[in-house]
């Protein structure tokens, strides 16, 4: 864990609170879609967006990532608790500091598996093994790995890392990683891995939307079965 008296961290906290939070606009239009960032101040770079928050980096603080939650989106308290339980682990980021609506994290400079597929970058089996081990570790810490999909896990120097743990406090079963791992071994490893060809974005998005529809239908059927008199 980085010492919070670290000069670089102290300077970054100042940049966040005196400049970034006053100028940036992070809005959640639809809870099922990524947040929208209306304006990014000079010197800052948008690294990515999720359903709850946006992640940015400052050009002078390249080893840190700043995650800002959209107004009205819950979860920051849960995410702080998750990082406290995870502690220091090579497959996860770390939380160095947090404020009312933001976290300062160790930046993971890898590439997510979705982008690997899109760009035709080979995903070695070791990446899958590492992520699997990391999720097992999280469970042993009393967490519940959730929402582990191709955009939330990364390849970093040939090893697997988990980039988003914001939903690891949700006490419900999530089959995303199980299905992703199955697809890797049943389809990717037997064909795409050998030729490492780029997969068109339109195809990946169709698969993603079909999977979302499939999981929604499964939850609906499950709720009907578990409800007395349901049909």
Automatic annotation (TrEMBL):
<dbReference type="InterPro" id="IPR052396">
    <property type="entry name" value="Meiotic_Drive_Suppr_Kinase"/>
</dbReference>
<protein>
    <submittedName>
        <fullName>Serine/threonine protein kinase</fullName>
    </submittedName>
</protein>
<keyword id="KW-0723">Serine/threonine-protein kinase</keyword>
<dbReference type="InterPro" id="IPR011009">
    <property type="entry name" value="Kinase-like_dom_sf"/>
</dbReference>
<keyword id="KW-0418">Kinase</keyword>
<dbReference type="GO" id="GO:0004674">
    <property type="term" value="F:protein serine/threonine kinase activity"/>
</dbReference>
<keyword id="KW-0808">Transferase</keyword>
